[in-house]
Amino acid sequence: MAVREFQFIVGPETSTLPSVGTPSADEDLLSLGYANAHYVQGKEAVADIAALKAVTDTGDNARVDRDVIFVDAKEALYYFDSASAATGDDEYIVTPDSGTGRWILLTDTPSNARMFSEESGTPATPVTGTDKLYFKSDGLLYQLDDAGVESQVATASGGAGQTFTDASTSGVTVTTGTTHYHPNLDIQSGDTYTINSGGTLLSVSDFVVSSGGSLVINGTVRVL
Predict the structure, then answer these.
(1) What is the pTM of this model?
(2) How far is CA 157 from the centre of its chain?
(3) 25 within domain boundaries
(4) Domain extent at residue 179
(5) Residue 68 is inside which H or E element, if any?
(6) Which of 77, 106, 135 is the C-terminal boundary of a domain?
(7) How many domains does the chain have?
(8) What's the rounded Cα separation, in Å, for the pair 41 and 131?
(9) Does residue 217 share a domain with residue 125?
(10) Are residues 91 and 62 in the same domain?
(11) Does 64 map to a domain?
């Protein structure tokens, strides 16, 4: 009787399944869980904050920790922090329509500089413990505290008791009732920077006090 032989190839043979743990070689595989936990993932841009809030936490395009999305209306990037429960203000912190986590505004600050958009009016009151610093269409700089109190930081001539500081940090005193704005405060050895009671220093970035320098704080310091 004739004998027929059939050979079935069902796939490559391997003694063990490929590892999906921490990759160490160029050929190692990555699991979805590892990628989500270790890499920033970009998603398609959205039109506005309402569209950002609507990004779901389910489905093929679900938001995950460290996702980054560009919001056209804000001309800004937001990243998703799945562990955050911060109070949303629809500007710096955005609460999704469903699920947990928060979208956080990413601010690019090359050389400690920031770009400010002009506000047509007074913006929404910031969340507790924060302030807003912004320009209005009159070209002047304003501060809005968490109680909704707006104050003008500087006039074109530096009047009204509100002043900018210049690059110098030597012998500067912020007197009562004045607000100094400093984009990059770096107090060098031998410099003394004094903030009197009732005076306010606004700093765009964390400030530096070098060894031998002195920062005397009897008033208020706010890092924006």
Answers:
(1) 0.42
(2) 32
(3) no
(4) 118-223
(5) strand 67-71
(6) 106
(7) 2
(8) 30
(9) yes
(10) yes
(11) yes
Between the alpha carbon of residue 98 and those of residues 53, 94, 95, the distances in Å are 8, 12, 8
Query: CA dist 54 to 61, 88, 103, 104, 176, Å?
Result: 12, 14, 11, 15, 46
Classify each residue of 66-92 as buried b or exposed e, where b means 16 or more C-beta atoms within 10 Å of its C-beta: bbebbbeebebbbbbbeeeeeebbeeb
Q: What is the pLDDT of residues 2-48, one digit of tens each?
A: 667 766 666 556 555 555 567 777 777 777 777 766 776 677 889 99
The residue assigned the tokens 């993932």 is 41
Report which of 71, 106, 107, 102 is spatially closest to residue 87, judged by C-alpha positions.
102
The candidate with the shortest Cα–Cα distance to 180, out of 222, 208, 139, is 222
3-state class of 161 per DSSP? Answer: coil
Q: How many other C-beta atoms are found inside a 10 Å radius of the C-beta of residue 206?
A: 9
For tokens 């400690």, the residue is: 112
Give tens-digit pLDDT for 46-103: 999 999 999 998 887 789 888 899 998 888 889 899 999 888 888 888 999 999 999 9
CA angle at residue 12 from 9 to 18, to 5 degrees? Answer: 150
CB atoms under 10 Å from CB of 17, counted, come to 7
Whether the Cβ atoms of residue 65 and residue 40 lie closer than 8 Å to each other: no
Give domain status of residue 2, yes or no.
no
Strand stretches in 138-190, DSSP E? 141-144, 150-154, 163-164, 172-174, 179-182, 186-187
